[in-house]
Amino acid sequence: MTTVRATGTRRPSSALWLALLWPALLLICLIPGVLSNLFAPLSAGIPPETGDRPLWRLTLIHLELVLGAELIVLLIGVPLAVFVTRPGRAALMRLTETITGLGQTVPTIAILALAVPTLGLGLPPTVLGLVLYGLVPVVSNGIAGLLAVDAGVLDAARGVGMTPRQRLMRVELPLSLPVLMAGIRTSTVYNVGTATIGAALGAGGLGSLIINGLSQQNTGLVLIGAVLAGLLALSLDALLALVSPSGR
């Protein structure tokens, strides 16, 4: 008896989208260079401290801030979510959710101000604020996704002889990835906006346009910084949606 397999359109795998992610991020850096020509009349009043850097360079600095902070968030948040969701650690899981939640209950500007006496100005306090602010959705969604894995699936994995590590890598993390990716998208979009505050500490980025525009009552500068930050947030969210297993 011949078995006939139905064929159809297959959705590209997440691995393929991940391979395309970084080249796409580089293309994003070219967008502000095109937009700078469109906003040339508005940017005529850019002060020397920002005028020496074209708009595409300010956007690149902003992108580096966000992606660098998100990398730290992932390196901390995902292992932390895995650790506290292991059996017998319910109390630790609740404590972790409470502590990480403080990162969003405390205003970002307050976190940055408290970090300045110890870390000084520039990148260190800015990155710390972004990490604390971005940890909440990643940890919360990571915990929710891992807890949502069906117990029957885990029992089946044990039945075929999988070790705890194999169950984690081959079953739990893949099944929880859609929920985790939703948290990563939320964290990234949040931090695109939050990173603008870091310009007040000398971290640079698009926030320098907004801050200088406010200080000079220059609506054009504020508009440029706000529009480019919004476009950057939308672009990153769209790219992360592509690599998400849910595809949206």
Q: Which helices and strands occur, and which strands form pairs?
A:
Layout: H1 14-28, H2 31-38, H3 48-51, H4 55-84, H5 90-105, H6 108-119, H7 123-147, H8 151-159, H9 164-194, H10 207-216, H11 219-243
Helix pairs in contact: 1-11, 2-4, 4-7, 4-9, 5-7, 6-7, 7-9, 8-9, 9-11, 10-11
Provide a descriptive summary of the structure in words.
The two termini are 40 Å apart. The protein has 248 residues and is mainly α. The protein has one domain: MetI-like (MetI-like fold), CATH 1.10.3720.10. The longest helix is centred in the C-terminal third of the chain and has 31 residues, at 164-194. Helix content is 75%, strand content 0%. Keywords: Membrane, Transmembrane, Transmembrane helix, Transport. It is found in: Cell membrane; Membrane. Its main location: membrane. Residues 59-240 form the ABC transmembrane type-1 domain.
Biggest pleated sheet: none
Helix content: over 70%
Proper CATH architecture: Orthogonal Bundle
Order of helices and strands: HHHHHHHHHHH
Number of helices: 11
In one word, what is the shape? elongated
- Tell me the span between the first and last alpha carbons: 40 Å
Q: Using DSSP, what is the number of strands?
A: 0
- Oligomer kind: single chain
**What fraction strand?**
under 5%
| Secondary structure category | mainly alpha
Mean pLDDT: 79
Query: What's the CATH class label?
Result: Mainly Alpha
Instruction: List the domain count as a whole number.
Output: 1
- Could you tell me the CATH topology label: MetI-like fold
The CATH superfamily is: MetI-like
Show unreliable segments: 1-15, 34-51
Cα-atom radius of gyration: 22 Å
